[in-house]
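In the present case, backbone shapes were mapped to integers, as reproduced here:
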Amino acid sequence: ILRQPDPMLFGPRSRLYYWGLTIVATVGVLLFFIFSRSSPASKRWGAEAVTISVAALILGPIPFWVTGLDIRLNFPFDRLTLPMMLGASLLLVAVLELLIKKKTVKVLLISLIIGLSVGFHYQNSITYRRDWQHQISFFQQLTWRIPALEPNTAILSNQLSATQSTDNSLTAPLNWTYAPDFSSGDMPLFMYYIELRFGREQTFFDKDTTLSRLYRFFPFEGSPQQALVLYHAPPACLRVLDDAHHHYYPLLPSYMREVLPYSHPDRIITDAESAATLPGVLAKYPQTKSWCYYFEKADLARQRGDWEQVAQLGDIAFPLDDSPNHASERLPFIEGYAHTGQIARAEALTFEALEINKFIGPMLCEAWERIEASTPASTQRDEALERINQAMDCDLY
């Protein structure tokens, strides 16, 4: 309760609400104590309360200890502290009762503790509201980029930031979205947080890794040859990764880079007759056609080889009052413009991306290598290639 709102996470209005709620709650409780008539507590009350509270603190976590669950103060293990709330609260009041003799001081301390607790729960509510917004955004972008998926696909992902959901939790809405008629048999899809399931410092994942899970009553059977790698780090758009296009992705965590060879975008059904739709609880939120909408659609069109559509989407996206959230989000459009003969536009976007992020050079070099290999030679293209190769030392990659 002593943790104040982080200015990096809470804006001025949220911090103002926090202090307002904390002060109002503190003053309200203080006034309640001042004007309430209560009989004096028994002298034995404090000692009895300590005994009961300690017993509650010992008994509360026993179910978790005997089942080998790890109690911590960070998500998702902090929920295991809930049964200890009674004992902790009672012990705090009992200690104050025993150590502090002046009623005025006790009343002030209890009022302040309750007020700060209200402020803490307000911060918690903001965290969960943002979590819900992140989940909505994640699944919206997922359906924009992936219209349908082959069954038995394992989704390998980084741990979604600013979310209070584990990969197990997200597996349910994932199947609800892409396999709404599933009711029995093998679960079609499963989501794995790579660092949680296969290690972060050293990733234990290779072609022989078993991707089999039991989700309540439903088994999932997959393999590294049936996997798809996602990367989502807001405010950047969701990315479907593969080794051919993202090996040099700047600042990509090492554990993500190690699994890139096992990402198979061909698991995506790009021309599905019936595209996935969000379930009702997610579908009721508006799907704003922001930058990420056009990026995901363009990346899907790139995968299909529909360069005309990529260029058309770029013509709509770039004039928006929005902008790419990561320099590499320009790459599909660079290739789209190059394939449709707009070499000058592709070159300008290339140097724009490089100016924003100097570490993106290798990705840009690979993109122009693909352009050189799949577009007809021309004086304009070859001159652009020469300028780009010289500026970024592409021969080094």
Summary: The longest strand covers residues 153-157. The chain has 16 helices and six strands.
